[in-house]
């Protein structure tokens, strides 16, 4: 898969999304998935924009429900972060007990777990910045539930490489697999991996019935850990030109929306704060992707530095950004993001409580605007 960065190609990708085919194939490595996550994560497009596009095409609720439900996971995790703040970085529902260490299993870093489909998936992650959802679940399960690593360091490793890295989705999904944000740990055996990755491996450490997996000792392949330091290489700093008679619009790695106030006369700054990337490091590939996406925004200037270092920041008539838990420290006005379900806020202990409310809203849309949906 590839991830073009021109806005027209991204819109084209939304238009080609077929939610009907999605439900049956999404769990298979070669199934029809949308590959939209890097653009949604980076705030180039919104979940609402995707929903509106499907509604405009006239899909009915039955045809698109599974796909919308997946999009809703993103909103759910963002709401979790909004509500929990930094507590999201601790075990959310239950302690992640039974772990043996807080490091990264070397086998993940080196793509040598011995499970061929996983190792191939990790190598592809390094090459492309993407990994299929099922492979992410398998990888997390092997690291945490078989290798007994605490979820935090492996989640940082994965986040570092993902073009679609989303701090909330990543942290919460790892905790979901590890069992600290769900009712039980997620396990996968070789048979399941073979089925969904179209592989045929036998005699691996996962080639066992399910009931044996939670009790098995850590396999040799996963015993070695590796000290890792994730470092973000940010572009060289150059001083932006600020017209002090105009407001500043702040963009960042989670807001790269080319349509945001695109007819206003403003200073547009893509702010890459070293403090943010120290806390949430990303690879050079991810930074290149962000810079490339920013090219869709006319007149944008890239600034590597902290918010307070932006020249004349105190002299401009207004500072605007989009609300996001990672950037609460920005001064000025924070505009709401475009949510599919703006009314469904607050913390839900599980996704399905959250989804029930969303589903009701979707049904209302179908009821109120039947002309938008195909019979
Ligand atoms: C351990 C683990 C870590 C993950 N880390 C991230 C991450 O850092 N960033 C990220 O965007 N997704 C993450 N996911 C969720 C999911 O794997 C990706 O969103 C999905 O694979 C993206 O591919 P796609 O766009 O083709 O998805 P599709 O299957 O086409 O899904 C459609 C859209 O639904 C949304 N979506 C689907 N599943 C999820 C989910 N679980 N959480 C949030 N949104 C979802 C995405 O926006 C996606 O674009 C993670 C999942 C796991 C199990």
3D structure, described in words:
The protein is α/β, with parallel strands linked by helices and 375 residues long. It folds into three domains: 7-87 and 349-372, Serine Threonine Protein Phosphatase 5, Tetratricopeptide repeat (Alpha Horseshoe); 90-226, Orthogonal Bundle (DNA Cyclobutane Dipyrimidine Photolyase, subunit A, domain 3); 248-331. The protein is built from 14 helices and seven strands. The protein has a five-stranded parallel beta sheet with strand order 5-4-3-6-7. A two-stranded antiparallel ribbon has the order 1-2. The longest helix has 24 residues, at 61-84. The model has no long low-confidence stretch (mean pLDDT 95). The structure holds flavin-adenine dinucleotide. The site of flavin-adenine dinucleotide has 28 residues, from helix 3, helix 5, helix 8, helix 9 and helix 10.
Give me the secondary-structure topology.
Elements: H1 7-16, H2 19-25, H3 37-41, H4 47-56, H5 61-84, E1 104-105, H6 106-109, H7 116-128, H8 133-146, H9 152-161, H10 167-178, H11 190-197, E2 225-226, E3 248-251, E4 267-272, H12 274-279, H13 284-294, E5 300-304, E6 319-322, E7 333-335, H14 351-368
Parallel strand pairs: 3-4, 3-6, 4-5, 6-7
Antiparallel strand pairs: 1-2
Helix pairs in contact: 2-5, 5-14, 8-10, 9-10
Residues 26, 33-37, 40-41, 70-71, 73-74, 77, 133, 136-137, 140, 158-159, 162, 164-166, 169-170, 173-174, 177 line the site of flavin-adenine dinucleotide.
């Amino acid at each position: 898969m590839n991830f073009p960065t021109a806005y027209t190609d991204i819109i084209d990708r939304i238009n080609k999304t077929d939610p009907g085919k999605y439900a049956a194939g999404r769990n298979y490595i070669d199934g029809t998935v949308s590959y939209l996550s890097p653009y949604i994560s980076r705030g180039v497009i919104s979940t609402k924009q995707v929903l509106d596009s499907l509604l405009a095409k006239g899909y009915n609720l039955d045809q698109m429900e599974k796909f919308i439900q997946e999009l809703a996971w993103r909103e759910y995790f963002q709401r979790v972060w909004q509500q929990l703040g930094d507590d999201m970085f601790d075990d959310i529902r239950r302690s992640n007990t039974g772990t043996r260490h807080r490091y990264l299993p070397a086998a993940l870093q080196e793509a040598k777990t011995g499970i061929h489909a996983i190792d191939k998936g990790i190598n592809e992650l390094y090459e492309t910045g993407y990994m299929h959802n099922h492979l992410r679940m398998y990888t997390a399960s092997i690291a945490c539930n078989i290798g007994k690593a605490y979820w935090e360091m492996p989640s940082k490793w994965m986040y570092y490489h993902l073009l679609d890295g989303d701090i909330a989705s990543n942290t919460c999904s790892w905790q979901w697999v590890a069992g600290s944000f769900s009712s039980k740990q997620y396990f996968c055996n070789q048979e399941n991996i073979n089925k969904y990755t179209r592989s045929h491996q036998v005699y691996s450490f996962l080639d066992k019935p399910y009931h044996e997996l939670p009790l098995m000792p850590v396999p040799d392949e996963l015993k070695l850990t590796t000290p890792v330091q994730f470092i973000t290489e940010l572009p060289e700093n150059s001083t932006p030109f600020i017209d002090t008679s105009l407001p500043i619009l702040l963009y960042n790695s989670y807001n790269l929306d080319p349509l945001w106030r695109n007819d206003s006369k403003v200073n547009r700054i893509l702010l890459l704060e070293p403090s943010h990337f120290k806390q949430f490091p990303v690879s050079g590939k991810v930074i290149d992707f962000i810079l490339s996406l920013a090219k869709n925004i006319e007149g944008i200037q890239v600034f590597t530095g902290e918010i307070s270092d932006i020249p004349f920041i105190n002299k401009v008539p207004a500072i605007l950004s989009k609300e996001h838990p990672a950037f609460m420290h920005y001064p000025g006005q924070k505009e709401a993001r475009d949510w599919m379900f703006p009314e469904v806020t607050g913390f839900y202990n599980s996704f399905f409580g959250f989804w029930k409310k969303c589903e009701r809203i979707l049904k209302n849309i179908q009821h109120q605007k039947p002309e938008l949906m195909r019979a």
